[in-house]
Amino acid sequence: MKRLLLGLAVASVVAACATTTSPTGRTQQVGAVSQQDLDRMGAQAFAKYKAELPQSRDSSQVAYVRCVVNAIARELPAGWQANWETAVFVDESPNAFALPGGRVGVNTGIFTVARNQDQLAGVLAHEIGHVVARHHDERVTRQMGAQAGLGIIGALVGSQYGSSAAQTTQQLGGAAVQTAFLLPNNRTQESEADVVGQQLMAKAGFDPQGAVSLWQNMIQAGGNRAPEFLSTHPDPQNRIAELRARADGLTPTYQQARAAGRTPNCR
């Protein structure tokens, strides 16, 4: 009954939002907040990162990242090609991110696994792919629906069994939603960003095989990981197999881009 109520509550909130189609043809629920608000939140978050985290003073690193981002941005759909702001943070963890509103952040640790421009493009195109596929919008919409659903369930349980039971229900329900509702969608988004990102990098003149070697480097650098069903990312070996298969299919796109003069030389 609790699961049924949760499903109905979440469905009622999400149904009030818009249905759209992702770049890979997947149906999405979006629109809990406006794109303008998402862009503003992205700008605020990026400003906070820059204010609180040390940034690289290596001008060549900053220029390198900007070069790759700009090459990818030129291949984005209309409406997404604004001037993307970049920052390089001094942090040993190999990570990068992109935010709505055209912001890209890179940790210096990424250069230990992204060892050439094609591998770096594999990271950055993937992160930018999250933005253009409206994954932030989708996650906000889903999370707002889940939170609304838990509030309704807590009220129903509390009216019958008391406030203590209501609090416990919300705590347990939050864990259930995280593992059974939100995390699987995150893995779907990660796989979709791989698809979108690899297409973008090939169109920009970066070798799509770079995404394959990037993840091989990631595995070599990484340690133990959680089981796939509890992870927000696909299993690395499965991911590499899919990236390799797509890279073969994108070779003509890459070759056409190079023939057309899209030959990035980022260093």
- The overall pLDDT average reads 81
Count of helical stretches = 8
Helix content: 55-70%
Instruction: Give the strand line-up of the largest sheet.
Output: 3-5-4
* Major sheet attributes: 3 strands, mixed
> How many angstroms does the end-to-end distance come to?
58 Å
Please tell me the total number of domains. 1
Give the H and E element order. Answer: HEEHHEEEHHHHH
What is the global morphology? globular
Radius of gyration: 20 Å
Strand content: 5-15%
Number of strand segments: 5
Q: Helix/strand-derived class? A: mainly alpha
Low-confidence stretches: 149-173, 176-182, 226-230
GO molecular function: metal ion binding; metalloendopeptidase activity
Cofactor: Zn(2+)
Signal peptide: 1-18
Family: Belongs to the peptidase M48 family.
Topology:
Elements: H1 2-14, E1 18-21, E2 27-30, H2 35-52, H3 59-73, E3 85-89, E4 96-99, E5 103-107, H4 117-132, H5 135-161, H6 163-203, H7 209-221, H8 236-259
Parallel strand pairs: 3-5
Antiparallel strand pairs: 1-2, 4-5
Helix pairs in contact: 1-5, 3-4, 4-6, 4-7, 5-6, 6-8, 7-8
Structure overview:
By secondary structure, the protein is mostly helical. It has one domain (2-259). It has 8 helices and 5 strands. It has helices at 2-14, 35-52, 59-73, 117-132, 135-161, 163-203, 209-221, 236-259, and strands at 18-21, 27-30, 85-89, 96-99, 103-107. The strands form 2 sheets. Strands 3-5-4 form a 3-stranded mixed beta sheet. A two-stranded antiparallel sheet has the order 1-2. Helix 5 (135-161) packs antiparallel against helix 6, helix 6 packs parallel to helix 8 (236-259) and helix 7 runs antiparallel to helix 8 (236-259). The longest helix has 41 residues, at 163-203.
